[in-house]
């Protein structure tokens, strides 16, 4: 099927229960709240994984909200860094930021949630 400008404009007319409205509702009413409500559980479960550490490193590199480096071993140290990551993510989301680091972490969280059945779609 060829997508024309007419069909795209028809999809994006507000207030007509169209595809754009459905997608927007899904993101705002399901996916973003999922991040806010589950970020701690996700970080606790995936903290030692390379992908999670890459996400944290990218958040740290973008430097929007400081995330300290882990300087020593110990549960208290890890908790301090995890809380900084949570603060960073929630702050960015509260301002509707669209940084690469934020979107990457959100995408990884959603993928894990669909895979383990916590989100269905």
Major sheet details: none
CATH architecture identity: Orthogonal Bundle
Stretches where pLDDT falls below 50 for ≥5 residues?
1-13
- Distance from first to last alpha carbon: 24 Å
Can you give a write-up of this model?
- This protein has 121 residues and is an all-alpha fold.
- It has 5 helices and no strands.
- The protein has a single domain (19-116), classed as Transcription Termination Factor Rho, Rna-binding Domain, Chain A, Domain 1, CATH 1.10.720.
- The protein has helices at residues 5-11, 19-46, 50-62, 75-94, 100-115.
Descriptive keywords:
magnesium, amino-acid biosynthesis, acireductone synthase activity, disordered N terminus, mainly alpha, 0% strand, globular, 5 helices
Summed up, what is this model?
The chain has helices spanning 5-11, 19-46, 50-62, 75-94, 100-115. The protein has 121 residues and is mainly α.
How is the topology of this model organized?
Layout: H1 5-11, H2 19-46, H3 50-62, H4 75-94, H5 100-115
Helix pairs in contact: 2-4, 3-5
Protein name: Enolase-phosphatase E1
GO molecular function, one term: metal ion binding
InterPro entries: HAD-like_sf
